[in-house]
Amino acid sequence: MSDLRDLYQEVILDHGKRPRNFRFPEGANRESEGYNPLCGDHLTLKARVEDGSVSDVGFQGDGCAISKAAASTMTEAVKGMTQSEISELFDSYHALVTGADGVEPDLDRLGKLAVFAGVSEFPMRVKCATLAWHTLQEALAGEGGTVSTE
Amino acid sequence: MTTRATAAEDLTREAAGDERAEGAAAQALGAIDVEAIRREFPALDQTVGDRPLVYLDSAATALKPRAVIDAVTEIYARDCANIHRGVHRLSQRATERFEGARDKVRALLNAPTSQEIVLVRGTTEAINLVAQSYARPRLGPGDEILVTELEHHANIVPWQIVCEQTGAELVVARMTDAGEVTADAVEAVLSPKTRLVALPHVSNALGTVLPVRRITELAKARGAAVLVDGAQAAPHMPVDVQELGCDFYAISGHKLYGPTGAGALFGRRELLDEMPPYQGGGEMIRTVTFEKTTYAPAPTKFEAGTPDIAGVVGVGAAIDFVREVGFDALAAHERDLMAYATEALSSVPGVEIVGTARDKRAVVSFLMDVAHPHDIGTIVDMEGVAIRTGHHCAQPIMRRFGVAATARASFGMYNNRADVDALVRALWRVREFLA
Description:
Number of strands of chain A: 4
Mean pLDDT of chain B: 93
Number of domains of chain A: 1
CATH architecture of the largest domain in chain B: 3-Layer(aba) Sandwich
Number of domains of chain B: 2
CATH topology of the largest domain in chain B: Aspartate Aminotransferase, domain 2
CATH class of the largest domain in chain B: Alpha Beta
Oligomer: heterodimer
Strand content of chain B: 15-25%
Structural class of chain A: alpha+beta
Shape of chain B: globular
Largest sheet of chain B: 7 strands, mixed
CATH topology of chain A: Sufe protein. Chain: A
Helix content of chain B: 40-55%
Low-confidence stretches of chain B: 1-10, 12-30
Order of helices and strands of chain A: HHEEEHHHHE
Number of helices of chain A: 6
C-alpha cells in the first residue's frame, strides 16, 4: 500500500506551508489564471520574461498542500529557463507524477522536483500537482486567460 | 442472506420488550438495529488499503442493500425484456415490476396518483424537464425565477438556461450566517413577477432543512409555481407532496439506496397535462404520421425511449427497504448521529463546522485550520474513511462562506458512532501530519 509519507514528503509539506515566490514579480509581462473546477483551487501566476527566458515568476491563490507546493517548487525550478526548456522539464515532471507507462522520468533534470514521485500513487491528486505548470505554460504562450484542469 | 422479507423483519427492533443490552448501549437513541442493517450492505464488508471501510459519503451516493442489488440482477437474469411492448411474458413481468416501482414512488411521496410520477434519470433530469417543458414556454422578459443561495448547481443552471432562452431573470433568496434560508428571506425577494420558485428541501452541502411548506404558501399566494429539489430529503424524512403543497418534487434513486441512473419527478396532474413533451421518441406517442404526431398522456409523454428498467425496479426495491426500516426510526438514529458527530468533530482543535442551522439532516460540512479539504480527504482516505471534499456542486455556498471547498461527512442508515470515532481519529492524524 502506498504510504502518506510518499505523497507528503517533507519538502512538499514545507513548500505547502511556506510557499516560495508567493507574490507577483515586478515588471511582470506574462500572466495567466489556473482553476480546478473539481476542487475549486485557484491560482494567478505572473512572470517576467526577458531575452527569451523567465527572469522572475510568482503566484497567488488558494489550494491544497500539493498544489501550493507544486507551484512553489516550480517557480524556483524554472527561473532562468526558456519556454522550450520549461516545456521539456514539464514533460519529465508530467511523466513523474502520472507514472506514465514506459516513460522514465529524467531524475537528473527534475532535481528537487523528484519529491513529487509519490503523486503517481494518488491519481486523484495529479491535477493538484500540475495546475501551476499548465498555468505557467499558458502564460508563456501569451494566451492569457484562464487555464482549467478540465 | 435468506430472503429480503426475513432480513427486513430483523431490521426494525420493536422498542418494547427488547432489552438487548449490547445493542441498547451502542445505539442509545436508535430504534433500529444498525448491526443488522449493516449486514444488508455488501459494500461495507471490505477493507480499503488495510483499513475497514468507513463510508461517510452517502449524500454523494448511498450504498446499496442486497435487496436492491438482487432486484437489479433479477431483471437482467430473468425478466429481461423491454417494457410496454410485446405481449410475451417476459415483457409483461418487466412491465409489472417497472410500473410497480412507479407506484412505490407515488406512495413514498404521497402523490395523489401514479400518473403524476414521471420516471427520469435523477433529480437533475427532473429539474431540466420542468425547466424546458414547464418554464420555457411560459416565461418571458419581465418574469422572474426565484432560487435560494443553498442550491446545488442542478437547481441553478437549468434555470439560467431558461433565463437565457426566455429573457426571464434569476433572483436569489439569501441565507443567514448559519446557513439557513428563512421564509422571510424568500418573501423579501418574492414579487408579482415571480413565476416559479425552485428550492431544496435539504441542502446537500450543509444539511440545512428549509421551511418548504411555508415558502410554498408564500409563493402560491403570489401565483408562482414551486419546484422542490428533494434529492437530499427523500432518504432521511417522510415526504408528503400534498402536505407541502408544491407543484413539482424531484428525487434521485441513488441517494435513496437505489441504483444510479433512475429517479423521479412528481408533477401536479393539471400542469403535466398542459406541458409539451421533454424529448421526442418511442413510447411517448399516441399516433405518428409524417404530417402530425399526437402524444400519449402524462407520464408517458415525458418518458421517450427505453428507460433504465433495472434501475427503476431497483429504486422500487430501495423504497421497500427504507420504508420497512421506517422513517421515524431512521430519523431518530440519524439525529443521534448528527448530535454525536457535531460534538465529536468540534472537539478536534482547529475544526470549524460550516452550516450551523437549527434543523440539519445527515450532513456535517467542516474546515480545518491546518489543512485544505483536499488534503483532509486524502489523509482520512488512507485511514479507510471516505468523505467528500470540494465545493459539493454548490459554489455559491462556498463563496458565501469565503472558501473554495469544505470537507463533508454525511450519514446513511448504516452509519454508527464508531464511524464518527474513526473520522475523528483520522482528523487527529491530519493534524499530526500537517500542523
